[in-house]
Design goal:
Helix content: 40-55%
CATH superfamily of the largest domain: Bacterial extracellular solute-binding protein, family 7
CATH architecture of the largest domain: 3-Layer(aba) Sandwich
Number of domains: 2
Number of strands: 11
Radius of gyration: 22 Å
Distance between the termini: 82 Å
C-alpha cells in the first residue's frame, strides 16, 4: 500500500509539473511571420521546448499585438510582459551600449561578433547595462551582413547624403547624421507606406529575404551595397529578471543551450536564399549598386567619430568598444595568415 501511495504521489507531482510548465508570452518587435527575423523567435521557442523537456515554452506575439514594437524593452523591464524578442540596437537611446551590441558600423562579421559575444566577454559587459532595468539579455540570433539599403535617388558622392531622409536603426543613423542626412527609426511594418508616400527617401531593414516580405522592390529604384552599418547584427530574447531567476539554475542552463543552438541556425539559414531573391528584384527593374569608394571612406571616418564619442560618454560603451577592438585585432592575425589568393 505504501508503494502504491508513493507511486501515486509521484505521478501526481509529475503531472502537476507538466501542467504548470512555464509558457512565456513574448512580445516581438517584428511581425510574427516575417522570414528569418520573426521566424527566429519561433525557432528559439522550439529549441527551448526541446532543451527544457517542455518545462518552458514561448508564445510569440507579433509586433504591436501585445505592446507597440518600440515599447517592448520598457514593458519587459516593468514586468508587464515576461519576455520580448528584439533587435538589440533598438534600445540605444535607453541603453547606450545596446547600439554598439546591436550592430557596429564597419565592425565584425557574424563569426567574430558571435565569438566576441559568447566567448570573448561581450555578453558579460553588456549585461551590466541591462541589470538596472531588471532584464536578462540572451543574444540568440545573429544576422548576416545586410545590404546598404533601398534608395529612390542615386548616391554618387558624399554630397548626395546631404538632406537625405532615411530610416535606419542603431549607430548607422548617427553616422549618416554626421554627413548631413536626416534619419529616423520606424518599425518595419510602417516602412512601405513611409517610402511609398515619400516621407522618407531611403530605408534599410534586413536581408533580401526579409526585405522581400516588406515589398520594397515595388517602390524603390536602387538597392545599395555593402551594408557598412550592419556587417552583423544581434537579435535577442529579453526576459524580466524576476522571471529568469524563477527558472532555477538547471532550466537557465538549458535555455542558454537552446539560445546558442538558435545562433547556429541563424548563421546557417541566411546565406543561401539571398542571391536568388536579389535576381528577382533585378527582374522587377531594381538596380543593384555599390556605394562609391569615396562615400564608404567618408562613412568609415564618421563611424570612427561616432564610436569614439559614444565611448567617451558612457563607461560601459567604452569597455565594450575596447573589448571588441582587442578581440578583432587578435582574430586578424589568424585571418590574415589564412587568406587565400583570389580566383583567376
Amino acid at each position: 500500500m505504501k508503494t502504491v501511495t508513493t507511486l501515486s504521489a509521484a505521478f501526481m507531482l509529475a503531472t502537476t509539473s507538466l501542467v504548470q510548465a512555464d509558457t512565456l508570452d513574448v512580445a516581438s518587435t517584428f511581425p510574427k511571420n516575417m522570414p528569418f527575423l520573426g521566424e527566429g523567435a519561433e525557432v528559439l521557442g522550439r529549441n527551448i521546448e526541446i532543451a527544457t523537456g517542455g518545462e518552458v515554452k514561448l508564445r510569440v506575439h507579433g509586433a504591436g499585438d501585445l505592446v507597440p514594437a518600440l515599447e517592448v524593452l520598457n514593458q519587459v523591464s516593468t514586468g508587464a510582459i515576461p519576455a520580448g524578442w528584439d533587435f538589440i540596437g533598438y534600445w540605444g537611446g535607453t541603453i547606450p551600449v545596446a547600439a554598439l551590441a546591436g550592430a557596429m558600423p564597419f565592425g565584425p562579421g557574424p563569426d567574430l561578433f558571435a565569438g566576441w559575444m559568447w566567448e570573448g566577454g561581450g555578453l558579460e559587459i553588456i549585461q551590466k547595462a541591462y541589470d538596472p532595468l531588471n532584464v536578462k539579455l540572451l543574444p540568440c540570433h545573429i544576422t548576416a551582413p545586410e545590404p546598404g539599403g533601398w534608395f529612390n535617388k542615386e548616391i554618387n558622392s558624399v554630397e548626395d547624403l546631404q538632406g537625405l531622409r532615411m530610416r535606419i536603426s542603431g549607430m548607422g543613423g548617427q553616422v549618416l547624421n554626421k554627413l548631413g542626412a536626416s534619419t529616423q527609426l520606424i518599425p518595419g511594418g510602417e516602412l512601405y507606406v513611409a517610402l511609398e508616400r515619400g516621407r522618407i527617401d531611403a530605408t534599410e531593414f534586413s536581408l533580401p529575404v526579409v526585405d522581400k516580405s516588406l515589398g520594397f522592390a515595388e517602390i524603390a529604384k536602387y538597392y545599395y551595397f555593402p551594408g557598412w552599418h550592419q556587417p552583423a547584427s544581434w537579435n535577442s530574447l529579453i526576459v524580466n529578471m524576476d522571471v529568469w531567476n524563477d527558472f532555477g539554475e538547471e532550466i537557465q542552463e538549458q535555455v542558454l543551450v537552446a539560445c546558442k543552438a538558435t545562433v547556429t541556425w541563424s548563421l546557417a539559414a541566411a546565406p543561401e536564399p539571398q542571391g536568388a531573391i536579389i535576381e528577382e528584384f533585378r527582374s522587377m527593374g531594381v538596380e543593384t549598386k555599390r556605394f562609391p569608394d569615396e562615400v564608404l571612406a567618408a562613412l568609415r571616418e564618421a563611424s570612427v567619430e561616432v564610436l569614439a564619442d559614444a565611448a567617451a560618454s558612457d563607461p560601459i560603451v567604452a569597455e565594450a568598444y575596447q573589448s571588441i577592438q582587442q578581440y578583432m585585432a587578435k582574430a586578424q592575425i589568424w585571418d590574415d595568415l589564412q587568406q587565400l589568393p583570389a580566383a583567376n
